[in-house]
Amino acid sequence: MKKLIIYSLMFFTFLACNKEMEKPEDLIPRETMVSILKDVYVFKQVKNYRVAKDLPAEEEANVEVLRKHNVSLDQFKRSYQYYIIDNAAYDVLLDEVKKELEAELPPEALETKEVDKTLPPSAQ
Fold first, then answer.
1. Using CA atoms, how far apart are residues 114 and 5, in angstroms rounded to an integer?
2. pLDDT tens per residue across span 49-92
């Protein structure tokens, strides 16, 4: 009996994982989503490297980023869930964000640095 329950749970879990999400009617276009994610990433990095009292809280900054792109929080959540459901497509989206960020860097910032091989990968 236990095996039947376990197999049933595994089967329904498999079905739930493979379920495709319906495309939202107000899906944020891919280019806009890349721009939004880029802006959010830039703010997070500025906040990490610069201690300033005049920087808004992260939630407030995210709302400002969405407002800049004329996108509501609910619309962003639906679109983000839609894009993230397909791991390969989401990786491509993140690669586009990375390319846009790198395009804004000065050339000397893109030079590769020798990685210390004595450190574990998580510390590099």
1. 53
2. 555 555 566 677 788 888 999 999 899 999 999 999 888 889 99
Cα distances (angstroms) measured from residue 2 to each of 8, 10, 13, 65: 10, 12, 16, 50
State pTM to two decimals: 0.65
Residue with tokens 């030079």: 111
pLDDT of residue 21: 75
40/55: higher pLDDT: 40
Which DSSP string do the residues of 23-42 spell out, in sequence order? PPTTPPPHHHHHHHHHHHHH
Using CA atoms, how far residue 6 sits from 10, 13, 19, 78, 119, in Å, is 6, 10, 20, 32, 42
Distance between CA atoms of residues 41 and 62, nearest Å = 10
Nearest-angstrom CA–CA distance, 101 and 36:
12
